[in-house]
Design brief:
The chain has twelve helices and 13 strands. The longest helix is centred in the C-terminal third of the chain and has 70 residues, at 256-325. By secondary structure, it is of the alpha+beta class. 47% of the residues lie in helices and 18% in strands.
């Protein structure tokens, strides 16, 4: 044997020659702590292993039966090597000579032993999270801190403004797309991150900054999720995007104070517009109510006037008809009714021209004696109505 230690001769001493007393390849032989003999060589170890194997086998030699037992044990061990375990957050993909043949669920499973079949167990049931525009840094003294990544978060809006957007993407492997996830993309996390950043830049690029900073967060998240999912499906990545979460949407730090002033001015504008609209909503109905009231009053006055005029016309026509039947009686009646209406509410003094003397008839005002003094004074100041004597034909009063 070339590795055996042989005494004498120039060719002994191991593979590095006999010179130097059994030195190694670096010029020095093995040294024992006590300076004694060298350790046993490889040939001695193999010889001892063969002796122990002969003692364990029946008959003391490797016959046909021994080789059969060894082959059966090897085949059994090879067959048992096909058992494997899939963890609760994993899915198993069995490959037969490198080809995807089936998927297995979590638990204890079996596949044909290597090299016929192999198995891959990716974390397909775990929800993964990718942060874009920020990084969470763990510090033992200060705890977790968030570090901005401007090259990922600064984006240009549709109205040519710059906005700082930090967001997170929650994704997982599709239940039926584990094979696509393993064989269609090389770096799943890098692919999801690149697609998410590209989709966010596209959505921000066709939006204005004002809705982005105020009330369009839900719309942006939905649009980015749909665009990401369609892009990953086009790649055949076997990835399902579950949620897009906007963490921070702010203007750049250098101009954030100016943007806040603009936001305050816009808020004041909206408040003033709302107050004006509230005032208009209160005043306009009141004005319309007054207009309706005036219109209804005018219509009522119109109806009343027309009705009175119609009644007067009917009365006049009825009197005229009676006048045509008896003109003298009608004239006399009209005269008396007129005089009754004119002289009914005044004090009167009647002078009879046929009596002698002064023509004044003395009378005792019995009806004035019972009135209070304050009512008699205005009546004394009021001039009395005198009726000049008329002929019997003119007055129509018969003696």
């Amino acid at each position: 044997m070339p590795w055996s230690n042989q005494s004498g001769g120039s060719g002994g001493g191991g593979p590095w020659g006999s010179g130097g007393g059994g030195k190694g390849p670096w010029g020095s032989g093995p040294q024992s702590p006590g300076g004694g003999a060298t350790p046993p060589d490889l040939e001695e170890i193999l010889r001892r292993g063969q002796d122990r194997l002969r003692q364990a086998l029946p008959g003391g030699s490797l016959g046909g039966k021994g080789f059969a037992l060894l082959a059966l044990a090897a085949i059994s061990l090879w067959g048992f090597s096909g058992f494997f375990r899939v963890e609760p957050d994993e899915l198993g993909v069995v490959l037969r000579f490198g080809k995807n043949v089936r998927e297995v669920q979590p638990g204890l499973n079996y596949h044909l032993p290597y090299p016929i079949e192999t198995v891959l167990t990716p974390k397909a049931l775990r929800v993964n999270k990718i942060d874009i525009g920020m990084r969470v840094v763990d510090d033992t003294r200060r705890g977790s801190t968030v570090r901005d990544v401007p090259e990922e978060s600064l984006m240009l809006t549709g109205d040519e403004n710059i906005v700082d957007v930090d967001f997170a993407v929650l994704w997982r492997v599709k239940p039926t797309g584990v094979g696509d996830y393993l064989f269609n993309i090389q770096n799943p996390e890098g692919t999801v991150k690149a697609v998410a950043e590209s989709a966010m830049r596209e959505v921000i690029g066709r939006s204005e900054i004002q809705p982005i900073l105020t009330g369009a967060r839900q719309t942006i998240e939905t649009a980015v999720l749909e665009l990401m999912q369609s892009t990953l499906d086009t790649y055949g990545a076997g990835i399902l995007v579950q949620q897009v979460q906007l963490q921070k949407v702010d203007p750049p730090t250098q101009v954030i104070d100016a943007f806040r002033d603009v936001q305050a001015a816009r808020a004041d504008l909206e408040r003033s517009v709302n107050e004006a609209q509230t005032y208009a909503n209160r005043v306009v109905p009141e004005s319309r109510g007054r207009v309706a009231q005036i219109t209804q009053a005018a219509e009522a006055y119109k109806s009343q006037t027309v009705a009175e005029a119609t009644g007067q016309t009917a009365r006049f026509l009825s009197i005229y008809e009676e006048y045509r039947k008896a003109p003298a009686v009608t004239r006399e009646r009209m005269y008396l009714e007129t005089m009754e209406r004119v002289l009914g509410g005044t004090d009167k003094i009647i002078l009879d021209a046929n009596t002698g003397g002064s023509g004044v008839v003395p009378y005792l005002p019995l009806n004035e004696l019972g009135r209070p003094a304050q009512q008699q004074q205005p009546q004394q100041q009021r001039p009395a109505t005198q009726i000049q004597p008329q002929s019997q034909a003119q007055t129509g009063i018969r003696p």
